[in-house]
Structure formats: structure tokens, C-alpha cells
């Protein structure tokens, strides 16, 4: 679906009037670095990249594309791991990276108004002097944009207790496909009418362009402790996770890494991880001093009972930051072990962790590809990293098959195919496994209410029924999914 | 990341190294977050991940024009991206290779070439640069403003100690520092004298080679490198404990000698030794017992200072917290400085070749450094020092002066 040359000329002529020459990229050389996002296995060249820095410019760009029926793919920091910002061959990339200003911090109402290109971590850094922070902290927080977080409903270490992006934003401004600027949500907690803010969250750039966000800030907790438990068996670590939650404790973060991940992360972060452990659990507890003491005792006991071989408690902010730095850099640090990795993102019920890990290691043997496991254990969000070498003919395909097996396994045990990285381009086929035709039809109805010509990030996130049928991937009988009792997404 | 190099290129030392580096990059984009030019320009092409991608295209023999070259030119080589990268991508080495190939494959305009040649023919030669600066100091009132700003006030070096101690170290004089701030090495010599160390200043040593290296003139750069190794070698054999560098820019370069000459059969071993012995002055001072310095310290006036860690120190040589500790132990109060991981915009010849970006970074840096009203700004590289002094109301000095009193 390439753009015909008349439309292309007309488009570029209009875009030239809107942004300065150096913010409209059209040469093949300049476009190539935009051909992929954080999932570099898939590439496509867009027709142009536009980098506006005012809302008016965004409105005009969207109007021009809408009028000429040119697809638009929004792009924040391009750290997405499901190809959400993968360009469309006949469309433009609308880059929001220059919208990088924090507009205000309201210490009375505990909110901050930010532009969509602001880095997630930059919000917390700006709020810190006021004793505040922004809770959702994806591991990519140093780089990913808040606009991209809203579009993916991103989660992170602290989401177990404090919720995903959707629970931590109050209002957004979007530009709709006809160029209108809309405000969704409100300054107060509840809004009459449909919750369109929640609908936009996680919509992967398919319903509108997010141009401003009011995020909620939280006061820093009084006291924090981070426990690191080592295990000799991965399964024991998996069971420990379920045990802790079963004690009625909701840690601020509960994360797990297996041996390969520990080694890679340690090489970068020098966090003093135990290199001989088969797996570690990182458990952050926060709250009032007294309450915290009690929790620490309970968790320590539970961990020991679950066969933890060693437990270390980090009390200083510095040591805690180190422990988390290792975890947060774990994906790219795995680049030290293998030239390429394929990062999976499925969720499973916590009690299935040990079983699923066992199965993954069997699959690893079957496909003869190594796996490093890093994940948000507390909410059952797995991130197996399949290690492969893209320079070896066919290995990417094998990795993809391996990945698809893992996701189907997730659905089979009652989980879902994405925890937080979105569906994008990558997992579109697995959507056929996850949803019934009736559900997919409703998704399309929502899409066309916002975007009748399907110009906003077309071809992502929701497969057409036709596609699913062709794939024959409908492992769904009579519109019934395995484990219909489990709520999805 | 996947690479598709031609087998011929893959068999060259550069090809092999570039391939290894590129394949370590997993395209996560973390590095963009701390890249000064990405922060200012917001274009993937002007961040490390994009530049890595551009270099990959070039090395895969895809067509290359000045579009790519412009984005590589805009890179400060500050190596902030290396510090940030969890996967250990050696960006600094990759960009050197990328620039070299791009330079071969594209041509520059007449005026641009002239400026680059002029810099290459002036800066690295102390015998040319020092008289030029002296002339400049005399004629400053008549020079265009952009140049006049760059010429510092005349500075007196002060006395070199005449004692000889049994402990000896070599010091690199460098090329531009003796003209711009001859007092730095003199102060270093006095401080080390009090610690019982004599400094040797070998005659035939000159520029570290960084200017040429970063302007893709590797051949000349290697000439300088070998000349220095030759000049230092007899002193090394006579037991010099270290080669001290007081400009972190030069230090980062000398620490790279082993890498640059790794395939040179005459120089590889010597270069390795030199790199081992090369020490930033902070590394030397931090290992010594500083009591002899304390005795002479009287009531000081300066207390509140802002420290600017040069990129070549914190990202290039990965030395962090060392100078900070020395100065804090000495009783100075280091004020908090936002974004201290960012480059000041000096970056060798960058301030001349990319004036606009350089000035933006300079303005941001000085704003952050002066936020809490320091009495003085201290740093550890002559480039940063003169660049910041251009726009600073308070003195900008090398930190070693704070021990020389
Ligand atoms: C190493 C690594 C670790 C990661 N860890 C986590 C993690 O712990 N948790 C997690 O949730 N994710 C994680 N991610 C995935 C990724 O960082 C998140 O999905 C993030 O929210 C993407 O933000 P971005 O700015 O990079 O968006 P992009 O990748 O640029 O875009 C992502 C999607 O959002 C759309 N989009 C972007 N901006 C806008 C906008 N302003 N308006 C409308 N649509 C928009 C795009 O079209 C695309 O569909 C990780 C990624 C990496 C590389
Ligand atoms: S941080 Fe490292 S691995 Fe990630 S994109 Fe940058 S250079 Fe590549
Ligand atoms: S060296 Fe500095 S300017 Fe160049 S890409 Fe890395 S961080 Fe950016
Ligand atoms: S760093 Fe610069 S000033 Fe110092 S010797 Fe090298 S080229 Fe000369």
C-alpha cells in the first residue's frame, strides 16, 4: 500500500507549510532510523517523518492527512516492544519527541501537566524536590514517553500496588482524526458519561493523537525496604510469589529474574546480585514505619518457608536504587549475552508461574534457543526473553514460533497475550486466539466511531476477522475461549 | 541487531570491530534519554540509537550523502550514551569508524573544508597555537566577537618546583593547554612536589592526537600517538610510575592508545604499557596520603563551589565521584548541579564547527552550574574550562588549584 506520487506531492507540499524544513524528513537516509521501534526485527519505511512541537501543528498535520487519506502512525520515544510505532509504507510518522516540556506541577492537587514527549522518569525527577513521584515505572522509564505510556497503558515495577497508567492519569487532550482538539477526563476524580479517558488508554495510537496529559502524583512513602531473596530452584521462586500475595501483603513491587538475566544485569548495574542463584526475587515494601516492620517479618518468614537460600534487606535509598537499576536494565543488558532477543509479554495467574516456567524451559530445549526470564512476578506478567541471532538464517522465525507457543501457553493456563507491551504489529495474530469474533467486531465498531477511514495506525492491534480466518488460528470453538471465567485485559 | 556487511569489509579490523559493536546494540533507545543533541533536536537521527543505525547503513554499503554526515557531525562524542547503555555498546569506537568511512564516501564544501583544515593545522601544534593565542591576546579588541570570546586572559604559570624526588611521573603538556592555561600543570607540579613526587616533562611529546582523531584524520593522529610513545618510552623504562594528564580530554585519548595501535606490530606492546600507566590527575591524587597538603592550608575564603565533571572524565574515562571526594574531604561544599551528566558543548573543535548547538548546551550548563550562586566553578578539562569561562561571571578553574595553596 504505497502512496501514489500525486498524493505524496500534495502531502509534502502541505506539510512544508506546517513545520520548518529540518522537521520534515523525506530522504531515505533520514527515514531509515525510523523504520522500526524497540522491536527491530520488523521494519518499514514511512513516506515522511514530521516532528511538530505545537498542538496547532499537530492539528494541521492530521487534517492534511485526513483530507488526503494518508495513514498516520504516532511515535513517542520508539521504545515499544510490539511494533506499535512500526511505520506504514503509505503513511507518515508523527513524532512527538519535541513535545518534551513539563508544563506545571500542582503540589496542592498532586498533579502535573505534561506534554506527551516527556520521558516517564523526567516527571518523577521534576516532582522529587516536592516530595512527590509518578508511580507507574516501566523498566524503560529513563527513555519512554508519557504519551507512549498512555497509548500502551504501560505498567512497571510499582504497578502491583499503585496501578497501571490508566489509574494514574486524570485528564488528556487528544487530536481526533478530523483535527479537533478534545479534552477527556477532568480535573476531578469522576466524570459523568462514558469513561473515554480509559478507552484512550491502551488504544495504541488508533483512536487519536495524545497531545497533553495531566498525571497524578503521589507523596513519597514514609519508609521503604527492599528484600532480595535467592533461590536454588526457579520453581521455588515462582511459588514464593504466590505465597507472599496469599499472606495478604501487596508489595510495592515484586519482581523475579532467572540466572541468565541476573548475570547480564549484574554486569551493567553492579548491584551485588548473587551470581550462583537460579533465580532471585526482589520485593519492595513501603508504608508507615510500624506497619513496614511487621510486613518485613511476615515476608521474610514466607520466603524462608518457600526455600529461599539467602535473604538480603536493603535499607538505604542508595542500595535500593541499585537493586532496582539492575532489574530495570535487565532487558537491554541481556544484549551482552546474545546479539538479539525477542521479548515476550504474557500474563498468567500467579499460581501457574512454576508450571509455566517449567514448560518454557522444555520449549527452550525443543527449539534449541536460550531464554532469560525477567518479570513482574507480583502481577503474573511474564517477560521471557528468547535469545537468538538475527544473522543466522531462519533463527528469527524459530524465535517467533517459540514465542507464539509461549503466548498460547499463557492463554491456556488462564492468562492473556499481553501484560503491558501492547499488541501492535507483533501480536496481532495471537489476538485471534484471545478474542471471539463477536468481540473483535465490537472493537472495530469502536475504532470506526473515532476513525471511520482507518487512518490512525491502521493494521495494528486488532486483526480483521478475515485475517484470523485465514490464519486458521481460531483455536476458539463456538466463540468460546478457554477459561471463559477469567476476565481479560 | 542484525548486520549485513560485505565479507570484504567484515575481514578488516574496522569491519570486525564495528560488527561486534553493532551486534551488541538491542535498539532499546535508553541511550537517547541522556544524549544532549537528541534532547535539543528531538530527531532520532540526532540521537545515539539513530546514529548507530545510520552507521550500520553506511557500513552495509548503502548510499550515503551529507545527510548522514550532518547527523554524525552533530555528535559531540561525549559518550554519555555509553554510560547509559545497559548492553555495553562501545559507541565511541563505532562513531570513529563510521566517521572515517563517511569522510571517504562524501565530499565537503570548500568553506567547511577550509575551517577543518585550519583547525587541524593550528590546534595540535603548540609551536603554532601558543604564538597565535599570544597575538590574539594583544589584538583581542580588534577581533570579531565570536573569536575574541574564545581568547582567554593572559595567565601566569607560577613557579615550577625545582626539587627532585625519587618518585617520578611523566606529565603530558598537550598542545592548547600550555597556551590557554599554563598554570594548571605548574600547580599540579607544586602539589605533587609536596607529596614527594617529581614530574618529568619529556621534550618531544606533543598533542595527544585527539583533534585529528575526532576530525577523522586518523593517520596524523597516529603520528602524534607514536611520537608521544617514543618521547615517553625512556622515562617509562627509567621507572616513571605514571603518565599524568590534567586535561581529561587528552586523558581519554591516551587511554585509547592501546586500542588504536592494537594491530601495529612495532607499537602494540608499548601502547598497552602507556595506556596502563596513563592516569588522570584525580586518580593519582586520590591514592596519595594528602596530609602534607594540609599543613599549609590557612583560612580559606572560597567555600561554595560547583563542580562540572567533563564528559571525557565521567563518560570517556568512567571516573566518577573521585574529584568530588577529594574536594569534599578538603572542606569544600559542592553545590547540587542539575543534569551534571550532560556535556557543556565544548567538545574539542565542536564549539567552532557546530556553534549553535554548542552555545545552547553552554547556556543550559551555566544556568545549572550557577543556580545556587557558587563562588567558583571547578572542572578538569581545559576545553570545558575556557568554554564555560566565556559566559561565566565567576571564575572557572581546574580543581587542582584548590589543593595548591
Ligand atoms: C528495555 C525495555 C523495557 C521495557 N519495559 C517495560 C515495562 O516494564 N512496562 C511496560 O509497560 N513497557 C515496557 N517497555 C515497552 C515500552 O517502553 C512501553 O510500551 C512504552 O509505553 C512505549 O513508549 P514510547 O514513548 O517509546 O512509545 P512508542 O514506542 O513510540 O509508541 C508506542 C505506541 O504508542 C503510540 N503512541 C506513542 N505516542 C503517542 C501519542 N502521543 N499519541 C497517540 N499514540 C501514541 C504509537 O503509535 C505506538 O502504537 C519496555 C521497552 C524496552 C525497550
Ligand atoms: S542503550 Fe545501548 S543497546 Fe540500547 S539502543 Fe542505545 S546503544 Fe543500543
Ligand atoms: S556521544 Fe554524546 S552526542 Fe554523540 S550520540 Fe552519544 S550521547 Fe549523543
Ligand atoms: S586534548 Fe586537545 S588540547 Fe589536549 S593535547 Fe589533545 S588535542 Fe591537544
Task: Give the SSE layout.
The complex is a heterodimer of chains A (489) and B (405).
Chain A lengths: L4 H14 L5 E2 L2 H4 L16 E3 L4 H14 L3 E4 L16 E4 L6 E5 L4 E4 L5 H8 L4 E2 L12 H7 L6 H4 L6 E7 L5 E5 L10 H5 L8 E8 L1 E2 L3 E9 L2 H13 L6 E6 H11 L9 E9 L1 H17 L2 E7 L2 H12 L1 H4 L6 E4 L2 E2 L5 H15 L3 E6 L4 E8 L6 H18 L15 H7 L2 H14 L14 H7 L18
Parallel strand pairs in A: 2-4, 3-4
Antiparallel strand pairs in A: 1-2, 5-6, 6-10, 7-11, 8-9, 8-10, 12-14, 12-15, 13-14, 13-18, 16-19, 17-19, 18-19
Chain B lengths: L6 H4 L2 H12 L11 H6 L6 H12 L6 H8 L6 H5 L6 H15 L4 H13 L3 H14 L5 H4 L18 E5 L5 H4 L2 H12 L2 E4 L9 H5 L3 H20 L5 E3 L2 H7 L2 H4 L7 H10 E3 H7 L3 H4 L9 E4 L3 H6 L5 H8 L3 E2 L15 H4 L1 H16 L5 E4 L2 H8 L6 E3 L7
Parallel strand pairs in B: 1-2, 1-3, 3-4, 5-6, 5-7, 7-8
Bound molecules: flavin-adenine dinucleotide and iron/sulfur cluster (3 copies).
One iron/sulfur cluster binds next to helix 4 of chain B.
Amino acid at each position: 500500500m504505497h502512496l501514489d506520487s500525486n498524493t505524496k506531492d500534495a502531502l509534502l507540499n502541505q506539510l512544508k507549510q506546517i513545520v520548518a524544513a529540518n522537521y520534515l524528513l523525506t530522504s531515505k537516509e533520514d527515514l531509515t532510523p525510523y523504520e522500526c521501534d524497540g522491536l527491530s526485527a520488523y521494519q518499514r519505511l514511512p513516506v515522511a517523518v514530521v516532528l511538530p512541537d505545537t498542538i496547532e501543528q499537530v492539528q494541521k498535520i492530521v487534517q492534511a492527512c485526513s483530507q488526503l487519506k494518508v495513514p498516520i502512525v504516532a511515535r513517542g520515544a520508539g521504545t515499544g516492544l510490539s511494533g506499535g510505532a512500526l511505520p506504514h509504507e503509505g503513511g507518515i510518522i508523527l513524532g512527538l519527541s519535541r513535545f518534551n516540556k513539563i508544563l506545571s506541577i500542582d503540589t496542592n492537587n498532586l498533579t502535573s501537566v505534561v506534554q506527551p514527549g516527556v520521558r516517564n522518569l523526567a516527571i518523577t525527577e521534576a516532582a522529587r524536590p516536592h516530595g512527590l513521584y509518578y508511580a507507574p515505572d516501566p523498566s524503560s522509564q529513563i527513555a519512554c514517553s508519557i504519551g507512549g505510556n498512555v497509548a500502551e497503558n504501560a505498567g512497571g515495577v510499582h504497578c502491583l500496588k499503585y496501578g497501571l497508567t490508566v489509574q494514574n492519569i486524570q485528564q488528556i487532550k487528544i487530536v481526533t482524526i478530523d483535527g479537533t482538539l478534545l479534552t477527556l477526563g477532568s480535573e476531578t476524580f469522576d466524570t459523568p458519561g462514558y469513561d473515554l479517558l480509559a478507552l484512550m488508554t491502551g488504544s495504541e495510537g488508533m483512536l487519536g493523537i495524545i497531545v497533553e496529559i495531566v498525571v497524578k502524583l503521589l507523596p513519597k512513602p514514609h519508609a521503604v525496604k527492599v528484600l532480595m531473596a535467592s533461590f536454588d530452584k526457579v520453581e521455588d521462586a515462582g511459588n514464593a510469589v504466590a505465597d507472599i500475595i496469599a499472606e495478604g501483603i501487596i508489595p510495592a513491587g515484586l519482581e523475579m529474574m532467572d540466572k541468565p538475566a541476573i548475570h547480564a544485569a549484574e554486569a551493567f548495574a553492579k548491584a551485588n546480585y548473587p551470581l550462583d542463584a537460579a533465580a532471585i526475587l526482589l520485593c519492595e515494601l513501603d508504608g508507615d514505619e510500624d506497619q513496614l516492620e511487621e510486613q518485613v517479618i511476615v515476608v521474610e518468614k514466607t520466603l524462608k518457608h518457600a526455600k529461599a537460600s539467602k535473604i538480603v534487606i536493603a535499607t538505604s535509598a542508595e542500595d535500593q536504587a541499585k537493586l532496582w537499576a539492575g532489574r530495570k536494565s535487565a532487558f537491554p543488558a541481556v544484549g551482552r549475552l546474545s546479539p538479539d532477543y525477542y521479548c515476550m509479554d504474557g500474563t498468567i495467574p500467579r499460581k501457574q508461574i512454576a508450571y509455566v516456567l517449567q514448560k518454557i524451559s522444555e520449549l527452550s530445549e525443543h527449539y534449541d534457543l536460550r531464554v532469560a526470564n525477567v518479570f513482574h512476578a507480583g502481577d503474573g506478567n511474564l517477560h521471557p526473553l528468547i535469545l537468538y541471532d538475527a544473522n543466522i538464517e531462519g533463527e528469527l522465525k524459530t524465535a517467533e514460533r517459540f514465542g507464539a507457543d509461549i503466548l498460547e501457553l499463557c492463554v491456556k493456563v488462564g492468562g492473556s497475550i499481553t501484560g503491558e507491551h501492547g499488541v501492535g504489529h507483533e501480536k496481532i495474530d495471537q489476538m485471534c486466539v484471545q478474542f471471539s469474533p463477536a468481540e473483535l467486531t465490537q472493537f472495530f465498531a469502536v475504532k470506526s466511531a473515532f476513525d471511520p477511514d482507518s487512518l490512525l495506525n491502521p493494521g495494528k492491534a486488532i486483526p480483521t476477522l478475515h485475517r484470523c480466518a485465514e490464519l486458521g488460528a481460531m483455536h476458539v470453538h463456538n466463540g468460546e475461549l478457554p477459561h471463559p471465567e477469567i476476565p481479560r485485559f | 541487531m542484525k548486520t549485513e556487511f560485505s565479507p570484504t569489509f567484515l575481514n578488516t579490523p574496522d569491519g570486525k570491530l564495528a560488527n561486534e559493536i553493532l551486534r551488541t546494540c538491542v535498539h532499546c533507545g535508553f541511550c537517547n534519554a541522556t544524549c544532549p543533541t537528541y534532547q535539543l533536536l528531538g530527531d532520532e537521527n540526532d540521537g545515539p540509537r539513530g546514529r548507530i543505525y545510520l552507521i550500520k547503513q553506511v557500513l552495509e554499503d548503502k548510499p550515503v550523502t551529507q545527510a548522514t554526515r550532518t547527523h554524525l557531525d552533530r555528535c559531540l562524542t561525549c559518550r554519555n550514551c555509553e554510560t547509559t547503555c545497559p548492553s555495553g555498546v562501545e559507541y565511541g569506537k563505532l562513531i570513529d569508524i563510521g566517521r572515517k568511512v563517511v569522510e571517504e564516501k562524501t565530499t565537503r564544501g570548500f568553506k567547511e573544508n577550509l575551517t577543518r583544515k585550519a583547525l587541524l593545522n593550528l590546534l595540535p601544534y603548540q609551536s603554532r597555537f601558543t604564538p597565535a593565542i599570544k597575538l590574539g591576546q594583544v589584538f583581542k579588541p580588534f577581533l570579531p566577537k565570536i573569536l575574541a570570546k574564545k581568547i582567554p586572559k593572559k595567565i601566569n604559570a607560577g613557579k615550577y618546583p625545582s626539587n627532585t624526588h625519587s618518585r617520578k611521573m611523566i606529565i603530558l603538556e598537550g598542545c592548547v593547554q600550555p597556551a590557554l592555561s599554563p598554570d594548571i600543570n605548574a600547580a599540579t607540579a607544586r602539589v605533587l612536589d609536596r607529596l614527594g613526587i617529581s614530574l618529568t616533562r619529556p621534550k618531544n611529546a606533543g598533542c595527544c592526537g585527539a583533534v585529528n582523531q575526532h576530525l577523522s584524520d586518523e593517520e596524523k593522529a597516529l603520528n602524534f600517538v607514536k611520537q608521544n610513545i617514543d618521547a615517553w618510552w625512556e622515562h617509562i623504562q627509567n621507572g616513571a610510575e605514571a603518565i599524568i594528564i590534567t586535561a581529561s580530554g587528552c586523558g581519554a585519548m591516551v587511554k585509547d592508545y592501546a586500542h588504536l595501535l592494537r594491530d601495529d606490530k612495532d607499537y602494540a606492546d608499548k601502547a598497552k604499557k602507556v595506556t596502563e600507566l596513563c592516569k588522570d590527575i584525580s586518580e593519582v591524587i586520590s591514592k596519595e596520603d594528602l596530609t602534607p597538603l594540609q599543613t599549609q592550608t590557612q583560612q580559606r575564603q572560597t567555600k561554595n563551589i560547583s563542580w562540572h565533571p567533563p564528559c571525557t572524565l565521567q563518560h570517556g574515562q568512567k571516573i566518577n565521584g573521585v574529584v568530588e571526594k577529594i574536594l569534599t574531604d578538603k572542606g569544600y561544599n559542592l553545590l547540587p548541579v542539575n543534569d551534571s551528566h550532560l556535556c557543556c558543548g565544548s567538545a574539542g573543535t565542536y564549539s567552532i564547527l557546530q556553534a549553535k548547538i554548542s552555545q545552547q548546551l553552554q547556556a543550559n550548563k551555566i544556568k545549572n552550574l550557577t543556580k545556587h550562586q557558587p563562588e567558583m566553578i571547578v572542572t578538569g578539562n581545559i576545553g570545558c574550562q575556557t568554554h564555560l569561562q566565556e559566559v561565566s561571571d565567576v571564575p572557572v578553574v581546574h580543581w587542582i588549584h584548590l589543593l595548591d595553596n
